[in-house]
Amino acid sequence: MSAAGEKLAIALGMLVLATSCTTKFHTSTQTSPSANVTEVTNSQTVAAVTIDGSSTVYPITQAIAKQFQAESQDQTQVKVDISGTSGGFEKFCAGKTDINNASRPILSAEMEVCNKNGVRFIELPVAFDALTIAVNPQNTWAKDITTTELKKMWEPDAQKKITKWNQVRASWPDRPLNLYGAGNKSGTFDYFTEAIVGKVGASRMDYTASEDDQVLVDGISKDPNALGYFGFAYLEENQNKLKALPVDSGKGAVVPSRETVEKIQYQPLSRPLFIYVNAQSAQKKRAIKDFVDFYIQKAPTTVASVGYVPLPEEGYHLDKVHFTRGKVGTVFEGEAEVNLTIGELLRKQAKF
């Protein structure tokens, strides 16, 4: 499509949205009752952008928030918290936050809560992750691991039964197997259990759990008998404290990396990462619109700098078009999708 054609399409999209009461963005500073606004002493109003959710997406959003605040001309404050994807959606669908970081798509039950509370959302993929299996650097015996072995470790039947390394692979030593993983409010927990065990939420529960990936990193780095899983950016940030295990899903062991994600080799542990934007907040609070525009612009370089896999240019272009048009809803029909590739994600977004 020519540049003129694209502008016309966007203009028409905006007209349709305006007449159908679908979200349209304004420059108005009007705020919703749930919006956070701070009055300062000189009578100027400083808007606060409130963000919660996934610790996996946190490094991207936090880095962009710092850039945005440094360049902001109106002292806009951006507050980024961590409570896990599911915990974040609880707040987001209650209208308590403007943006939710998510390491999986929004689920049907969460969509129902959002709908009940009148919260309409814009789904924006921002990166791909290589969900990483890590051990302590003092672990000299584990050189790789299969998805079958991971299932044997993590399935519900393993609880209080699979407690030593040699129970997983006979050549591994008779040492305690100490597991560290995502808490059940985490999108990483949802994705890992579906990809490895075969059912969302199916997991042994006798392990050290946290919605904060840094807590898991710290635990594994101090425990020679540990194994855990978390987002790839936390490996990149802590390479001197951790050792990643190549994962074999039946076609040979593959290390987590940008290259293996892009070449569709690191499966089934490659997954998209998202932000979800409250459409009403973006309409009523100029700060939200400005921040999300800035986020989409900075995402390609920031995603790479914190250790994740950027989307192709087309992906961020689609984000910009969907956000500008106020395109609410999801392309995932309320389910997390295992083995999704970057190309498949882009095709979904292009049809949206």
TrEMBL record:
One of its GO terms (biological process) is phosphate ion transport. The keyword Signal applies. Signal peptide: none annotated. It comes from the Bacteria. One of its GO terms (molecular function) is phosphate ion binding. Residues 41-296 form the PBP domain. Belongs to the PstS family. This is Phosphate-binding protein. It comes from Fischerella muscicola CCMEE 5323.
